[in-house]
Write a structure and sequence with these properties.
The chain is an all-alpha fold. The chain is about 75% helix and about 0% strand. The longest helix has 29 residues, at about 50-75.
Length: about 110
């Protein structure tokens, strides 16, 4: 009884539960294969590979930039100077502070 209630409350709409047996796995594989065979691309589903790769690169850059902001904030909070941060980033201390100073202050204010 408790198991059924737990399952009922933890199911996500549109998400299939993990198969429980080999037959469930085979049935699920058949269902997926049929879905692929029946798939008809909608407008905008297909994009050139170059566009896809560019979008991925932009997302990766955004993630990296977020990591840099966090690292700069941690460096500043531990006393590392803007001179050293600029050197590590390959820029001048002033450019590093102009680029990351306000974001570091926001990060520090949020904690």
């Amino acid at each position: 009884m408790c198991q059924d209630n737990l399952r009922a409350h933890t199911q996500v709409p549109g998400v299939m539960a993990m198969p429980r047996s080999i037959q469930d796995i085979l049935d699920h594989a058949d269902e997926l294969a049929q879905r692929f065979e029946d798939y008809v691309p909608a407008e905008g589903d297909e994009v050139p590979v170059e566009e896809y790769l560019l979008k991925r690169a932009v997302m990766a850059r955004a993630r990296c930039e977020g990591e840099i902001v966090e690292a700069v904030a941690a460096a500043r909070s531990s006393g590392i100077t803007w001179n050293k941060i600029g050197e590590i980033l390959g820029t001048s201390p002033q450019a590093a502070q102009q680029r990351y100073g306000a974001m570091v202050e926001q990060t520090e204010a949020g904690h």
